[in-house]
TrEMBL record:
Pfam families associated with the record: LppX_LprAFG
The organism of origin for this protein: Thermorudis sp
Protein name per its UniProtKB record: LppX_LprAFG lipoprotein
CDD domains per UniProt: LppX-like
Gene3D superfamilies xref list: 2.50.20.20
UniProt KW keywords: Cell membrane, Lipoprotein, Membrane, Signal
Amino acid sequence: MLAWIAWSYNAGTGCWHEQGSNSMRAHETAPGTCRPRGLISRPRLAAVGLVLLLLLAPACSRNEVETTVDPADLVSAAADRLDQVKTFHFLLTHESGGTPILQTMLLTQAEGDVARPGQMKAQLDVEAVGAALQLQFIGIGDEAWLSNPFNPAEWQPLPDIAADDVLNVEVLPEVLRKIREPRLIGQETLDGVVTYHIQGKLDSGDLAAVVPSGAEPGLEVTVDLWIGKDDSLVRRVVVSGALTFSEATTMKRTLELSGFDQPITITPPQ
């Protein structure tokens, strides 16, 4: 039977003494002396260690679950899943600067909808001839139209320009499949959706399919992805680094995706 143990403090000696159902046990300190307070007996040290191991065991188990996730498989599944999506909404922003489009404009923000195959309508925020402008863009197959910035009801066809010559978000699955050295950063919640945060590398030239006028090969960029844990849908893509040799290496572009497979109708302007 375990003896009941208590501790008492002797104000005279400034020491703590162990007491129990027996007045004195073989390992106890003799009366009038005290065990140094900074030392812990080996049995008690072992017990403390056991308790710590028991407390840490669940945390270790959680980490083991995370390490079983293969980042490359997550990215591959995300590319395949995005290939199956017929429509989606997108928002492209720049932390600073912009992306060249149509040779004479600098795109600072784009928001719109994509319908496969080859259809896009979007509002383009651009800088051109020293002015900040908002343009409406419609692309259907090999035809494209741009609104007059001073009269949005007036549209102009863009000769020899297709939708994917301006901004081609539709090819994002192809870009995902080129990501190198993917690694799992952790889990994060975006707009109520639990996601895997993956980070990897790309050559800047791999993004030329998305921004045909704004990417040159030969530069390494970092890519961060947020992929839905339950549905493998890409919610966010952040590209950090220069896409051309004239850009600042601090450039950062963010692409947000939403509204997957929602009804979208894109028609030529009237």
